[in-house]
Write a structure and sequence with these properties.
- The complex is a heterodimer of chains A (about 500) and B (about 170).
- Chain A is flat, with a radius of gyration of 28 Å.
- Chain A is built from 12 helices and 21 strands.
- Among the domains of chain A are: about 210-270; about 300-485, no CATH class.
- With about 500 residues, chain A is an alpha+beta fold.
- Chain A is about 35% helix and about 25% strand.
- Chain B has helices at about 20-45, 55-85, 120-125, 150-165; strands spanning about 15, 85-90, 90-95, 100-110, 115-120, 130-135, 140-150.
- The longest helix of chain B is centred in the first third of the chain and has 29 residues, at about 20-45.
- In chain B, α1 packs antiparallel against α2 (about 55-85).
- By secondary structure, chain B is an alpha+beta fold.
- Chain B folds into 2 domains: about 20-80; about 85-165, PH-domain like.
- The chains are: A alpha+beta (about 500), B alpha+beta (about 170).
- The interface of A and B includes residues 131, 431, 436 and 438 of A.
- Chain A: InterPro entries: UCP026631 (IPR014529), YdbS-like_PH (IPR005182).
- Chain A: It comes from Arthrobacter crystallopoietes BAB-32.
Chain lengths: ~500, ~170
């Protein structure tokens, strides 16, 4: 491989031509690597498929009609071929150029990616700022044995760094390398290139039967039932009044059915083949039906957790766990699945996963406290609930709404029919606010809202007695401040005297 | 100003400048003029006979309701501004606001990512500025408007210094 003829501002220094080997030793400033050559094809296959469809359909149909294709008659054949070749050349040229100009390197401290043909983009991220690493294989990538590596840092609307695509084994090796350097683990000075993936222990796998059950019992079924009920009533009334509106009713059902099917699909495809494992580098989740993902969330990166239970899952005592991780943010692409720590699990599974996120629950009886948070009411498990005078305002939820505090986390419980529990570690509390509206003022109530990073979890302690709420507000700020002073270092395996927080940002 | 039920004990709030009432009132005047003009358009058209078909009761209600809502907002502005307050504690900054819907927020210095000081044209004319604190959470909507410019500068320096001293990761 030669040096590119028109090197950008980042042109490699003489002798530093990009390679396709995965960097095992930290890269020097001038050593760069390229992604796999067929990557643009995996990314741009849709364009090729569209062209094939456009040109192919006409010829294909004409074969069946037994007459020559419109495109190939009356001298149009030449032009058709020219246009096809031109478009193909443009696409393939673009593919080749974009591949040629995309380079990456992983140094001891940073990961850098340069990309773009006309508008160059240079991106650099610090390894110890990693919030999560994903290895993603889209359907076509699986056929070719390629995978995309996503490196997430906090406060990036999109992935900080995407390497697409690498051979699967290389992507995994690179993930291990990045995590090893980010964790501050010491490598063997004799063999700096021998980085082994941290050993992982399987924690749980969701059986296929439960995935099907969870899909059938999901909120979509409730929506479907409500829809059918409304339409049946509507149709019955229509017949009684002789409107003859059966066809209209059915056609109204179609968009609803599409939405329900989409709902079923999203539950099914994300829960399918879900496995969780734990390693010194954090929690590792694998799932997916067509597109498979392996997510790694290093220790201390989970900002908040919520455990919810859709209405019908009560029958089986199943729950879903969602997390806020700074890097995942609100990116539209598959964010529902990415922020799911457990798509469907029994109470035992929930406890196992919570133990991974919150290694020290900070209480003598974690099972009792968290069980009370999941399905309990009133004061069991040490929860403090809304005062009795709220019962006419929230007659269903007043015995559920409440909070409990352990040494390490705050648990906010709510919801009677759709049960929900939010857990925020003290050291992850960003800021807090007490809210009080006019009605709450009359009833001497207040809500406490805990602020965490962007994500599906929004912890709120609802309708507390004003004195209790103020006390919680004060104590919680003190607890959060104390927890911050002794929180874990960002490089989670680094050996350091004591557990001092380093002031380096 | 008296202490509200949700205010923490033993806090003496620093109130924002009374001049901020004028800033808010001028801003209110502009938006009130525009909204009343828009809402009164049907009434004007009706009275000048351009649009006879428009129901008279609707035209009158629309204009009347807009005028009343704007007047009500104007009455509230001074009280709303007086309800804004902040207090610096050792570990964190407290910010309160609101009269009907009250809020008391605590922002730990160690959690601040950056501090914004913004000055609009109206605020500049009155020598005021707005200070806004940002944490890693988008829900932290911690703005202190209508602070005198010198106080805003002091606050920014103070907050940055305290944030530096108590810095924590995410």
């Amino acid at each position: 491989m030669t040096t590119p003829r028109g090197p950008g501002p980042d042109g490699p220094a003489p002798g530093g031509s990009p390679t396709r080997d995965v960097p095992l030793v930290p890269d020097r400033e001038d050593s760069w690597h390229r992604v796999h050559p067929i990557s643009p094809l995996v990314r741009g296959w849709l364009a090729l498929a569209a062209i094939a469809y456009f040109f192919g359909r006409d010829s294909f149909e004409s074969i069946f009609r037994g007459e020559p294709a419109w495109m190939l008659t009356e001298g149009r054949g030449f032009w058709a071929a020219a246009i096809l070749l031109g478009v193909l050349a443009l696409l393939v040229g673009g593919f080749v150029l974009s591949w040629w100009f995309t380079r990456y390197q992983v140094t001891q401290e940073h990961v850098r990616v340069n990309s773009g043909i006309l508008f160059r983009q240079h991106r650099q991220a610090r390894l110890d700022r990693v919030q999560a690493i994903d290895v993603i294989q889209p359907l076509l990538g699986r056929i070719f044995g390629l995978a995309e590596l996503k490196f997430e840092v906090a406060d990036a609307g999109e992935s900080a760094v995407r390497l697409a695509y690498l051979p699967l084994a290389s992507a995994q090796q690179l993930r291990a390398t990045i995590l090893a350097r980010a964790s501050g683990a010491e490598t063997d000075p004799e063999h700096p290139d021998e980085i082994h993936e941290a050993p992982e222990h399987p924690v749980l796998a969701i059986p296929a039967s439960r995935v099907v059950g969870a899909t059938l019992l999901s909120g979509s079924t409730v929506a479907l039932a409500v829809m059918v009920l409304v339409l049946a009533t509507g149709t019955a009334v229509g017949f009684a009044l002789d409107w003859g509106s059966f066809g209209v009713a059915l056609s109204a059902l179609v968009p609803g059915l599409v939405a329900v099917a989409a709902g079923y699909w999203s539950v099914f495809s994300t829960a399918y083949n879900f496995r969780a494992a734990v390693s010194p580098d954090g929690i590792r989740l694998r799932y997916g039906l067509l597109e498979t993902r392996a997510q790694t969330v290093p220790p201390g990166r989970v900002q908040a957790v919520s455990v919810t239970q859709p209405l019908l899952w009560r029958l089986k005592d199943w729950y879903r766990i969602k997390v806020n991780v700074a890097g995942y943010g609100v990116s539209a692409e598959n964010s529902g699945a990415r922020t799911t720590l457990l798509p469907v699990g029994t109470r035992g599974d929930v406890m196992q996963m919570l133990a991974l996120v919150l290694p020290d629950p900070g209480t003598e009886d974690p099972f009792g406290v968290f069980s009370a948070g999941l399905a309990g009411k009133d004061n069991d498990g040490g929860f403090v609930t809304s005062p009795r005078r709220v019962r006419w305002l929230s007659f269903l939820t007043w015995r559920r709404n409440g909070f409990a505090v352990t040494r390490t986390a705050l648990l906010a419980r709510s919801g009677r029919l759709w049960r929900s529990l939010a857990v925020v570690p003290h050291e992850r509390t960003q800021s807090m606010a007490l809210h009080q509206g006019p009605l709450a003022r009359r009833l001497k109530l207040a809500d406490l809202q805990l602020h965490t990073t962007t994500g599906p979890v929004r912890p709120v302690v609802y309708q507390m007695d004003i004195a209790t709420a103020r006390q919680l507000f004060d104590e919680q700020s003190a607890r959060a401040a104390a927890a911050r002073r002794q929180s874990l270092p960002e490089r989670w395996l680094e050996h350091r005297p004591g557990q001092e927080q380093d002031g380096q940002q | 100003m008296r202490s509200e039920p949700i205010d923490p004990d033993g806090i003496s709030w620093i109130r924002v400048s009374p001049k901020y009432i004028s800033v808010q009132l001028i801003g209110w005047g502009i938006s009130a003029l525009i909204s009343i003009a828009v809402a009164s358009a049907p009434l004007v058209l009706l009275l000048t006979g351009v649009w006879d078909g428009f129901p008279a009761w609707l035209a009158w209600t629309l204009s009347g309701a807009t005028v009343l809502a704007n007047l009500w907002a104007a009455v509230l502005i001074p009280r709303q501004v007086r309800a804004i307050g902040y207090a610096e504690r050792d570990e964190d900054l407290l910010i309160r606001r609101g009269i009907f819907f009250q809020r008391v927020m605590v922002v730990p210095y160690g959690r601040m990512q950056y501090v914004d000081v913004a000055v609009g044209p109206l605020e500049r004319a009155f020598g005021l500025a707005s200070v806004k604190l940002h944490t890693a959470s988008p829900q932290t909507n911690a703005a202190i408007p209508g602070v005198p410019a010198a106080e805003a500068a002091r606050l920014r320096e103070q907050l940055s210094a305290r944030g530096q001293a108590r810095l924590a990761g995410l």
